[in-house]
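WARN no homologs supplied; continuing
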Amino acid sequence: MAFDIAVKRVYEPAEASDGQRVLVDRLWPRGVSKEKAELTLWLKGIAPSNELRHWYNHDPERWEEFRRRYAKELDGNPEPLRELGALLEHGRVTLLYSTQEERYNNAVALVAYLKENE
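OK structure emitted
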């Protein structure tokens, strides 16, 4: 199944082309109101565990190991993946994250996981 998925920072303005906007962080982003976020869903359960998040600490040298550990967590937690899959059946979904790191974040890792397990 092909899917239409995008990734962007929650601090960037919402656009009609975003489709359904899904926050995939465990913590609510600082300084963003619920109105400004314009979320379809806050999918906390799909975010990396607090332990993994703290271990990774956005260290690019830990990226590949982070992705491996995160994939293992996702494998053991199918319900949030089903929720996301249901949204993807209805068109574009934009995964939102809060970190300043644009290349090495859980939303990017999640997209890679979804593509590998398509």
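The mean pLDDT is 95.
OK
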